[in-house]
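R.M. (postdoc): so does anyone remember the format we settled on? I'll just put the structure tokens first.
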């Protein structure tokens, strides 16, 4: 009897302590405004549409939640999944879900939502995931098992991390009730903030989810405004119209750094900038010649771009795979040598250079595109900088009809295999072609369970990419954000895997 009494008292003390901790957090207060660096595409708010880049995760971290995701101190933190286990034969993965969670509309979170989300997913690596997963079995309300067609060492990476959006869970009952259009207009999730209203492309207004499992947000209202123009973002930061200005580079970043009322937050996430040559697999294009691609790469002064764009904080690279990623091969960039670049063009049959057409930078980084265009023009590769909206750019990048040169970047987490799967092999969503030997090496590593052998195969692929100049590596960018005087904790750099504010619930305003 005494033992039972002690147990009850201990339980009451735990509950009291827990309630005291929640009470100590206080109620969410105040409003924080973010000037985001692009127009806010509706697809950014739907996990099913997630491409192989980092941009949408800014919004997914706020409105939605995943089975597993990077959190401070843990790149694979258990979130909606409390735990998971792989079978001894590598053919199944079972997830135990966190109990008692509810979507923003009050619907309970269950294993049926996990299954529904997986089958609905159509973003990056969707074809690969749907081909390799033989079945998704709901064992009970809080347990779900994924059965593979054969062992796949990278299943968890492709499924349950921000390498894709496949494990960011959406509500089955709600979507079946309101339909796809209804969900697009009013998406709901399991995240720390819920959508109050949106003006497509322009603004989101979010309100704190006080029942979020990890932590009650301290800020009541988040306003995220799509502001593609960098000078406008800086002006908003200076006047107090915005509390955070995303992706401040060049002159604007330097201005923030030198303003005593503002501060510059920076992090180097797993991202890379590179020159993309979409016409390299067309035998009739100048870009089909390796010497032309090498000339373009050697024509660009990467360190000067680093100084001009990122105040010199970035790391130069010769790869599209960040050096800190699992299985990455550290590759130094080809040197800046415009004289040799001109010689290569002459050898390739273009002594007077050629018209390269459009040079298209990822929006809104127009100055990055202009810098590259100027360096290319200096050796005879003439082009016109083309600007476009971020959503339009992503659609163009996914097609195989783009031409000229793309100056591009991705900050999507993952490992070397996920980057190669998305950008390098012939079936990759962002590739315009490929090489049979690289495809075969990738196939071999995808089913190799010995880590050292996998690494050898993936390093071999990366050497071939570099030797063939499939891409022109520039740098691993230091991501710079402007922070206003009202912000105590901006949430930037809490996880080195992410370039944006995260987790949103960790952000704090200064006390009045």
């Amino acid at each position: 009897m005494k033992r039972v009494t002690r147990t009850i008292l201990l339980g009451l003390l735990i509950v009291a302590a827990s309630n005291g901790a929640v009470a100590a957090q206080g109620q969410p207060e105040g409003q924080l405004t973010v000037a985001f660096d692009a127009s806010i595409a509706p697809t950014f708010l739907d996990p099913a549409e997630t491409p192989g880049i980092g941009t949408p995760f800014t919004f997914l971290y706020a409105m939605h939640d995943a089975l597993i995701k990077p959190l401070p101190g843990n790149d694979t933190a258990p979130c909606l999944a409390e735990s998971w286990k792989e079978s001894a034969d590598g053919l199944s993965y079972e997830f135990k879900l966190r109990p008692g969670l509810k979507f923003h509309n009050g619907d309970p979170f269950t294993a049926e939502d996990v299954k529904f989300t997986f089958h609905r997913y159509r973003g990056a690596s969707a074809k690969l995931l749907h081909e390799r997963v033989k079945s998704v079995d709901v064992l009970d309300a809080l347990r779900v098992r994924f059965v593979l067609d054969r062992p796949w060492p990278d299943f968890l990476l492709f499924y349950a991390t921000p390498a894709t959006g496949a494990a960011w869970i959406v509500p089955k009952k709600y979507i079946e009730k309101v339909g796809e259009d209804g969900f697009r207009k009013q998406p709901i999730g399991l995240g720390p903030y819920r959508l109050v209203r949106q003006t497509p492309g322009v603004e989101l207004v979010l309100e704190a989810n006080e029942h979020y499992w990890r932590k009650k947000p301290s800020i009541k209202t988040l306003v995220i405004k799509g502001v593609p123009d960098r000078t406008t973002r800086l002006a908003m930061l200076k006047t107090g119209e915005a509390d955070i200005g995303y992706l401040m580079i060049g002159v604007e970043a330097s201005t923030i750094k030198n303003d005593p009322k503002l501060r510059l937050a920076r992090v180097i996430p797993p991202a890379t900038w590179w020159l993309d040559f979409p016409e390299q697999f067309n035998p009739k294009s100048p870009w089909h010649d390796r010497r032309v691609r090498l000339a373009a790469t050697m024509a660009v002064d990467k360190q000067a771009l680093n100084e001009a764009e990122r105040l010199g904080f970035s790391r130069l690279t010769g790869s599209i795979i960040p050096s800190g990623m699992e299985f990455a091969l550290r590759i130094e960039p080809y040197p800046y040598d415009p004289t040799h670049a001109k010689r290569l063009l002459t050898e390739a049959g273009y002594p007077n250079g050629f018209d390269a057409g459009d040079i298209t930078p990822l929006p809104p980084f127009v100055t990055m595109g202009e810098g590259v265009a100027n360096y290319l023009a200096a050796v005879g590769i003439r082009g016109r900088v083309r600007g476009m909206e971020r959503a339009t750019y992503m659609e163009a990048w996914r097609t195989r009809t783009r031409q000229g040169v793309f100056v591009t970047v991705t900050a999507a987490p993952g490992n070397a295999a996920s980057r190669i799967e998305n950008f390098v092999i012939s079936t990759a969503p962002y590739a315009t072609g490929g090489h049979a030997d690289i495809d075969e090496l990738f196939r071999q590593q995808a089913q190799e369970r010995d880590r050292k052998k996998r690494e050898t195969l993936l390093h071999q692929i990366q050497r071939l990419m570099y030797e063939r100049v499939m891409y022109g590596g520039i740098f691993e960018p230091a991501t710079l954000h402007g922070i206003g005087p009202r912000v105590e904790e901006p949430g930037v750099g809490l996880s080195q895997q992410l370039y944006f504010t995260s987790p949103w619930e960790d952000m704090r305003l200064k006390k009045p």
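R.M.: ...and that's the designed sequence above, right after the tokens. Also worth knowing: Confidence is low (pLDDT under 50) at residues 1-24. The longest strand covers residues 29-36.
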